[in-house]
Amino acid sequence: MTVILNQSFTGISIGAVLLLIALGLTLTFGQMGVINMAHGEFIMTGAYTTYVLQKSISGAGVSLLVALPVAFLVAGAMGALLEWLLIRRLYTRPLDTLLVTWGVSLMLQQLARDVFGAPNVQTHAPDLLTGNISMGGGITFASSRLFILGLALLSVLVLTIVLRLTPLGRRIRAVVQNRDLAEVSGIATGRVDRVTFFIGSGLAGVAGVALTLVGPIGPTMGTNYIVDAFLVVVVGGIGQLKGSVITAFALGVLQSVLEYSTTVSVAKVIVLVAIVAFLQWRPQGLYTLRTRSLA
User: Fold this and answer.
1) Could you read off the pLDDT of 266-280 as tens digits, one per residue?
2) 252 to 89, 95, 186, 216, 228: CA distances (angstroms)
3) How many Cα neighbours within 13 Å face the side chain of 19?
4) 127-182: per-residue pLDDT in tens?
5) The predicted structure's pLDDT at residue 1
6) How far is CA 41 from the centre of its chain?
7) Residue 120 contacts residue 53 (beta carbons within 8 Å)
8) What are the structural domains of the chain?
9) How far is residue 200's CA from residue 221's CA, in Å, rounded to a whole number?
10) Which whole number is the average pLDDT over 27-49?
11) Separation of alpha carbons 295 and 31, rounded Å
12) pTM here?
């Protein structure tokens, strides 16, 4: 039982990381239809923001708390700039967005190498997040993983409130469901697109801050997670936040259990096969967007 509980928590913590990364893609890919391959580099931006702030601010705990909003703003601003310069001209050509953002991702990786160097760097976690919390009976929870889980759930809650209860959220949903009707209704769709991209990219920056607690920072760190994040969005249902939440935790637990009984490589293969089989059975994902459109 102890092993099961420990592995389940490990899986939940993996799912929390996937969820944080996938939240931004739920907006930019799921709702806007943009295949943003530079999303991983926005994650990298959030991580390097934490690294820079830790060099400037004494106290790892203070620098981490400051890094969360700063990384959101920095990565969000980069995303909004990318949308304004390139993406807004390619909304009807999703495959072109893949090629363009892939090129942008390579440029950002090289920029990171020029500024910070090619070797990975490491940040220092606050003392409060370096240990484990023992629940008795051999059950232990890593403090840093608990923090990431709480951050992921808080991000989901805030994003849900924004999308469901604010005028901005209603405009975003209107543009996603019927752009032409939203335009004739007086909604500035271009501005809504830019704000949506800002939020999605900002969430990637927050994910980057969280990842500094579980591993080193490097120019290519985002590429290690981007494919899994896209899979979470696709399996959960394009643009469906609740689907992404369920899928992220399900894949995390499945991967953790398989890694315990097999190896990391075999577990990855089995998870990928399971995803392919699920999409063959239900290609629209767990949830689909319901509209009144007859098209």
Assistant:
1) 888 888 888 889 888
2) 36, 29, 42, 21, 10
3) 32
4) 888 877 777 666 777 888 889 999 999 999 999 999 888 998 888 888 877 778 88
5) 62
6) 11
7) no
8) 2-120+128-281 (1.10.3470)
9) 18
10) 87
11) 17
12) 0.89
Tokens of 96: 């072109």
31 pLDDT above the threshold of 70? no
pLDDT of residue 127: 81
CA distance 6 to 137: 11
Residue 255: CB atoms within 10 A of its CB come to 22
Pairwise pLDDT comparison (254 vs 134), residue with the higher score: 254
pLDDT for res 290 = 57
Residue carrying structure tokens 């190498």: 113
* Location of structure tokens 């295949």: 35
